[in-house]
Amino acid sequence: MNARKIKVQLISVLALLVSILSGDPGVSAERIVIGTPSRGLFEFPAVVAIRKGYYKDEGLDVDKVQMQPAIAVKALISGDIDYLLAWGSAIRAAVTGVPIKAVVGMASRPLHVLIARQEIKTPKDLKGKVIGVDSVAGTVDYLSRVAVRHFGFEPEKDVKIIVTGESPTRLAALRQGLP
Length: 179
What we know:
Helices cover 40% and strands 13% of the residues. The chain is an alpha/beta fold and 179 residues long. It folds into two domains: 93 residues, D-Maltodextrin-Binding Protein, domain 2 (3-Layer(aba) Sandwich); 53 residues. Strands 2-1-3 form a three-stranded parallel beta sheet. A two-stranded parallel ribbon has the order 4-5. α6 links the parallel β4 and β5.
């Protein structure tokens, strides 16, 4: 996909998100709380909209709060947050009957990549290695297990999967040579 097309899609998503969340600009700013599981690409449009003042321009005072996806789904149900960027956890909850709705999808596929040390040249080099994920049974854990199986390995037998924290923490562990 070329850069122009990506830019047009990003602007379209931001415009759609702002139009969905906007209220009457004549009243004082409405407070909106957006839950996010960790820092990453999936929250990029919301972060840009906050930093550029797009929400404020539409009469919204947006606060982004980081929390574990399972807790965030509960916070969404209870009304403690208004929107949730943990789409994997939210969709899984909705499929099981939890009364929540997907308002907008900001990606056509998961925005996850496997980042490895230099000695890992091919997926087969993962045998006997460790993959760090953000939480047990979360989207990163699930997708890591799917990828390991796709490459012909069994999670826990051929490739160990451990919880190391959110993306910046996992990257720092990788740089330090930790498992």
